[in-house]
Amino acid sequence: MDKKPLKIAVYGMDQRSVKTMQLFLKGPCHGEAVIVAPEQADCELIDIDHPQAKDFYDQCLEKHPERTLLALSLEKVALEHTLSLTKPVSRDQFLHVLSDLKAAFPQLKQSIPEAETSRAPQNTEQTSSIPEQPEQPPLKQEADPKHEPDHSAAQHNQAAFIGILNDIDFSDQQQLASAYYQAQDYLLGYLKAVINHAKSSGDVMQMSTSWKTIRIYPQHGLINLEANDKQLRAFAGIPLHQINNNLSFKAIGRPEPDLNDENNQTIEAFIWKLVIWTSRGRYPYKLALDAPVYLKHWPNFTRLLITPHALRIAALLMQGPRSVLELARQLDISPQYVFVFASTCYESGLLAPARRQSDTLIQPVPPPIKRHKGLFKKILNKLHIPVPGESDTHEST
Amino acid sequence: MNQHKIIFTGPVGAGKTTAIDSISDIPAIKTDADASDMTRQRKKATTVAMDYGVMNLEGGEKIHLYGTPGQERFDFMWDILVTGGIGLVLLVDNSRAAPFKDMAFFLESFSDFIEKTSVAIGVTQMDKSQTPTLEEYYAQLKSFDCPPPVFAVDARKTQDVSILVQSLLFAIDPGVSCE
Ligand SMILES: Nc1nc2c(ncn2[C@@H]2O[C@H](COP(=O)(O)OP(=O)(O)OP(=O)(O)O)[C@@H](O)[C@H]2O)c(=O)[nH]1
Ligand SMILES: [Mg+2]
């Protein structure tokens, strides 16, 4: 097992509860996790029974949408982006969640400096003015146990990269099949159309939304948006009809972009992220789940946000066409990861249905032979350094 | 214990030493010497023997990282170098006169090794020279049954090098997972 402790920021606990929890982590949980100040945390834990829990929740989502949220409560709650733990928390229950969390974020092992383990929490009861969130999931009591988050790695990764879609049970074939999105319902679809227009005309396009202005520089392959990833992420997931948005765009000639402006990003990296936050683990409507697809080439992963398992999926798909469901089966991962990967590649034009060759579908190649398995695992664990997007920096040009 | 190696290759100044240094647990042992004659124009020091770095893994295992000399006249060492190697990282300097020729040269020189293992290609110095584009690299590599990963890489960025090496491992075995 892993020696590096997971760093948790706690909210809604008084000093005594924090102390108790520290002892619980140190003793029964063998130091698998430690409590730290919010800035240093890998994930956050909120006591949902605290009167200000809702504020903490909003604040956590706003400040650190990439972190997994743990909700501690007397009654089971179903919150978006959140794993629920019911009081009293047992050692087993907690360790289970921790090991899933660590498995889902192997990079934690590298990123946790030893020295910080004994840091006391600060401001655990802090409140701050919370900017308005476009998406405010209600704090609702869990009624149907079927929707309870299972503590699989999938869920944790979802929370960090994709956003949990609590209302889809991916192990249910029917729900799985209906877990699609249509790009045209979101900012994504509209923006893609404007980009195409910009590329064919060569003109800079200025697109207005009720939210922000987006500028597209086709000659430079750049997009300019005065918003950080958190804001974009929140906006990306809202169906346009829900926000009564009048989108429009106009050509504004060919002004030069300010190349020093940090709000510039490559169109490629921007669309890639937007797809991730639009898809949130769903697949593109037009893509058949059981028909083989092929990947034109490896995505330029060093300049793109990497979703869980994306490198593996790409590697397997480069060996030959397979269906999306087949990929999930062969790699033994939750379909959500393959869906989000397929979405990014599909919307970026890298992935398409496999062509028929002399009327027979290209046969999927048998699963690869596994060499060096143990060794590779160790190297990968070692190399897992936070991938782009885990910080809030834009991918710049 | 087995000698596990990852080999870094590529033309003079492509970033091999820098790449090894960025993921090695020890400062890379550089065997740079003052460049003379042909390479002097391009950079101040060039590797005349082999670069060496190491990644310490859990359980005490090690991955040795070897960089081939950039100067082609030393290529007799390559055969010795690749014995027992896991795979090849090929760095191509996009700012050189003929990057595709460079790439073809190294792919050809290591073809037996690549056949047995795999290769991942990092195109460096793209900040200095945007052409050829990655699209053009993909087109160059069309003839591969299973085209290798090709990424824009800045050898000074650990993360870029890390993603490149990870892709190499997955290209060899997509079934492998981190825990
Ligand atoms: N601007 C820029 N510089 C880079 C990039 N990658 C590496 N460098 C720099 O390029 C120079 C050459 O890198 P080295 O690592 O010495 O190259 P090498 O392949 O070991 O060269 P030889 O040993 O002579 O074959 C160093 O100064 C690096 O910091 C890049 O993507 N962009
Ligand atoms: Mg060198």
Please provide a written account of the structure.
The complex is a heterodimer of chains A (397) and B (179). Chain A has helices spanning 15-26, 53-63, 91-104, 108-111, 153-162, 173-177, 187-201, 229-236, 267-279, 310-318, 324-331, 335-347, 373-383, and strands at residues 6-11, 33-35, 43-47, 68-73, 77-78, 82-86, 140-141, 180-181, 205-208, 213-217, 222-225, 248-251, 264-266, 283-284, 293-295, 351-353. Chain A is an alpha/beta fold and 397 residues long. In chain A, the strands form 5 sheets. Chain A has a 5-stranded parallel β-sheet, sandwiched between helices. Chain A has a 5-stranded antiparallel β-sheet with strand order 12-9-10-11-13. Chain A has a two-stranded antiparallel ribbon with strand order 5-7. Chain B is α/β, with parallel strands linked by helices. Chain B has a single domain (3-172), classed as P-loop containing nucleotide triphosphate hydrolases (Rossmann fold), CATH 3.40.50. Chain B contains 6 helices and 8 strands; from the N terminus they run E-H-E-E-E-E-H-E-H-H-E-H-E-H. Chain B is globular, with a radius of gyration of 15 Å. Mean pLDDT of chain B is 83; it is low at 37-41. Classes of the chains: A alpha/beta (397), B alpha/beta (179). Magnesium ion binds at residues 16-17, 32, 47, 51, 67, 70 of chain B.
Secondary structure blueprint with pairings:
The complex is a heterodimer of chains A (397) and B (179).
Chain A: E1 6-11, H1 15-26, E2 33-35, E3 43-47, H2 53-63, E4 68-73, E5 77-78, E6 82-86, H3 91-104, H4 108-111, E7 140-141, H5 153-162, H6 173-177, E8 180-181, H7 187-201, E9 205-208, E10 213-217, E11 222-225, H8 229-236, E12 248-251, E13 264-266, H9 267-279, E14 283-284, E15 293-295, H10 310-318, H11 324-331, H12 335-347, E16 351-353, H13 373-383
Parallel strand pairs in A: 1-2, 1-3, 3-4, 4-6, 8-14
Antiparallel strand pairs in A: 5-7, 9-10, 9-12, 10-11, 11-13, 15-16
Chain B: E1 4-9, H1 16-23, E2 32-34, E3 45-47, E4 51-56, E5 62-67, H2 77-82, E6 85-93, H3 99-109, H4 111-116, E7 119-124, H5 134-140, E8 150-152, H6 158-172
Parallel strand pairs in B: 1-5, 1-6, 6-7, 7-8
Antiparallel strand pairs in B: 2-3, 4-5
Magnesium ion is lined by residues 16-17, 32, 47, 51, 67, 70 of chain B.
